[in-house]
Amino acid sequence: TAYVLICAAMVFVMTPGLAFFYGGMVRSKNVLTTIMQSFFMVALISVEWVLLGYTMVFGADGGLIGGLSKLGLTGVGMGALPNAAIPELAFVAFQCMFAVITPALISGAFAERVRFGPFVLFVLLWVVLLYNPMAHWVWGGGFLAQLGALDFAGGLVIHILSGVSGLVLCLLLGQRSGYGRRPMLPHHLPMTVLGAALLWFGWFGFNAGSALGANALAANAVLTTQVAAAGGLSWVFTEWRRDGKPTLLGAVSGCVAGLVSITPAAGFVTALPAVLIGLIGGAVCYTAVAIVKARLGYDDSLDAFGIHGIGGTWGALATGLWATTAVNPDGANGLFYGGGLTLLWAQILSTLVAYGLAIVGSYVLFRIVNAYAPMRASEADEIKGLDVTEHGERGYVESIMTGSPISSLFGDNNPLRKDNL
Q1: In the predicted model, what is the mean pLDDT of residues 17-29?
Q2: How far apart, in whole angstroms, are the C-alpha atoms of residue 254 and residue 258?
Q3: Nearby residues of 380 by Cβ (< 8 Å), 6 or more positions away
Q4: How deeply is 296 buried, as exposed, middle or buried, from its count of CB atoms within 10 A (0-12, 13-18, 19+)?
Q5: What would the pLDDT profile of 324-380 be if each residue is shown by its tens digit?
Q6: Which pLDDT band holds residue 103 (cuts at 50, 70, 90)?
Q7: Phi and psi dihedrals of 179, rounded to 5?
Q8: Distance between CA atoms of 60 and 15, rounded to whole angstroms?
């Protein structure tokens, strides 16, 4: 119980970590709104999870969705889960953190151009109507679980669903004002590195906590998670060869890509396949970000699809190749361990289901929300920066004394004037 509660706290840290990771990659005028889009999810989705989410995911199987017998956590008490020696409330708290970070991941695909109010409405509907059903299908005894699909900690449910949904929205919203004509460089890479480090730390709770106990399976998941961050090596060496310089942004992006790739497989594969999964994941995600996105011209601002969508897809398929019951008897053997095509086929079908749900569901929800309240910020607001126009705040306030006479303190250009803030 103590282990699962600690892991829940570690997964919680991932959401503010994601806020820093994304916040450092945007321009300074949008740092606060980008952080807000992640941080606000902690409060919003936690309430949704207790009221509705948990019963939709882990209530008795009703076919496409869990039953409502646990609505508002009705009947969820201090007793242990039937298949784990932990209180059900510990499981509720642990899974809550998964539900919190998933919609936050989406925001990276359309950063710097979305109004906050419509964004909140969209992600709330998205969690209820897309995340909860998909989580039930895979983890709650739904039809994908019955098909035999494996997803140890969220490659299908979290990374594919959020990454593909982010791509759909970035296409529907269009490019940022000036995209391709003006540089849109990260304003604070040290902040991004801090966020990546917090994500990496939290990933041990994310993956190993899914073992629901401090046991051998958790130890395996910790090790496979760590070595899969080798994605940072393949990303850096690929860009070094192609562009002539290794970058810090490439290193942290590659590590995250490797961690994404191992997420569905962490409790089903051994260490050496985990290294391969991470290495291939880093190279594949780099290709999606640096080559495919550039050629197709879509504005996935912070590469949510290129890292989470593509990395999650590779990880789901890799599970069908390298999974072994020697690690997890509750799993299955993949293609390279004598299991034939059975598991790989289940992984392919479940991946297609995740893509279909994300594409159709996100498109419909966008049309509904956008008809009620336009999601795209105006061009004038984009140019001014969403920190000021959406939240009335600035991430960085310049000194009022720099290069200005004392009389300018009372002029229209005073950065401390209320209308400017």
Answers
A1: 98
A2: 6
A3: none
A4: exposed
A5: 999 999 999 999 999 999 999 999 999 999 999 999 999 999 999 999 999 999 999
A6: very high
A7: -60, 130
A8: 29
For the chain, the maximum distance between any two Cα atoms, rounded to a whole number of angstroms, is 80
pLDDT confidence tier of residue 84, bands split at 50, 70 and 90: confident
User: What string of H, E and C letters represents the secondary structure of the chain?
Assistant: CHHHHHHHHHHHHHHHHHHHHHHCCCCHHHHHHHHHHHHHHHHHHHHHHHHHHHHHHHCCECCCCECCCCHHHCCCCCCECCCCCCEHHHHHHHHHHHHHHHHHHHHHHHCCCECHHHHHHHHHHHHHHHHHHHHHHHHCCCHHHHHCCCCCCCHHHHHHHHHHHHHHHHHHHCCCCCECCECCCCCCHHHHHHHHHHHHHHHHHHHHHHHCCCCHHHHHHHHHHHHHCCHHHHHHHHHHHHHCCCCHHHHHHHHHHHHHHHCCCCCCCCHHHHHHHHHHHHHHHHHHHHHHHHHHCCCCCCCHHHHHHHHHHHHHHHHHHHCCCCCCCCCCCCHHHCCCCHHHHHHHHHHHHHHHHHHHHHHHHHHHHHHHCCCECCHHHHHHCHHHHHHCCCCCCCCCCCCCCHHHHHCCCCCCCCCCC
- Looking at residue 398, its pLDDT comes to 67
Quickly tell me which residue has 């999870």 as its tokens.
49
In the numeric block, which tokens belong to residue 283? 């190279």
Per-residue confidence at 404, pLDDT binned at 50, 70, 90?
A: very low
Radius of gyration for the alpha carbons in the chain, expressed in angstroms and rounded = 22
Q: What is the pLDDT of residues 270-306, one digit of tens each?
A: 999 999 999 999 999 999 999 999 999 999 999 999 9
What does the alpha-carbon distance between residue 293 and residue 301 come to, in Å, rounded to a whole number? 10
